[in-house]
Predict the structure.
Amino acid sequence: MILSETDRQELEQWVRAHRTPQQVVQRCQIVLAAAQGRQDKAIAADLEINFKTVALWRSRFCQEGTEGLWEVAPGRGRKPRYAASKIKTIIDATLQTRPAGATHWSCRSLAKKQGVSKATKRVVVVMDEFQEIFDYPSSRVERHLRTALQRQREVAYLVLGSRRRLIARMVLEESRPLYRAFTLFNLGLIPAEDWKPFLKERFARKGVQLSAEAFSQVMAVTGGHPYYVQNLCHVIWDAAPCNGSVSLTEGAQARETVLQRESYAFTVIWENLTANQRKFLKALAADPGRKVQYLSADFIQHSGLKAAANVQRAMNSLIDRDLVDRSEGTCNIVDPWFRLWVSWRT
């Protein structure tokens, strides 16, 4: 077995690290010994394991490299206490319902309602913008997290991220340490009927009444996305007089204020796009619908990209930059302010 100096150093570091799982330490020792030219039976005798185990991890390393030493075989590891459907039911109840006479569920009340033990999950670790670790130079953080997931039976991990594509790659790609370690849920947008009482109450604190027309305009522009709703309403709030009302006109003025603030950043993005990428974005922004059938003949003709292959290339590059999102054969511009800005340019 030939071992590069980089791999050797990494394996030796894992062996020395106190937090490396013992099963991974043993695998590293197998590979290091094999690289010295030792036979499987001799390695097995030294480590007091079966020689077939030595042969397995020698082969795995040759096929997958150092990353393969952290893999957990299908069917191994901690088994979930509850089925995915039950977990989804509990999450949906937590996010979408309220107990009678209370503003939110407690651990005990939700457990009783769902028929599970209140001690099922004693600790919840929440990590926001989790996809940031995707670009780390080493996958060590993911590997350590995988080990924690397998060992900590009473700890639940909830990870959140705004870049769904990267989150999906971390969980769905077999080469990643966190492959199938999490269940993916798309939280979606907050419905307008849930926003209405919240915004009404917040504006009322200033004595301001948000008209039905202005509210509808906010929802139409932002689509109910929390960040953009609060971004626009913050501008409306600042401009609204105390004990006054917000009409359609004030809503439109606030929208223009936001676009002016974002214009410089959007211009920088635009100037770094290719001609075909710009054509694709213009066609998306011009369509009145939020989701566009990007491979339809009408869209290809309207965009001026001439061929489906050109559309695919432009779209894929924009997805990589998190400017557009694709789902079930449709596509849309992720940032509603950028969509309005592109539409305004054209």
The chain has a mean pLDDT of 83.
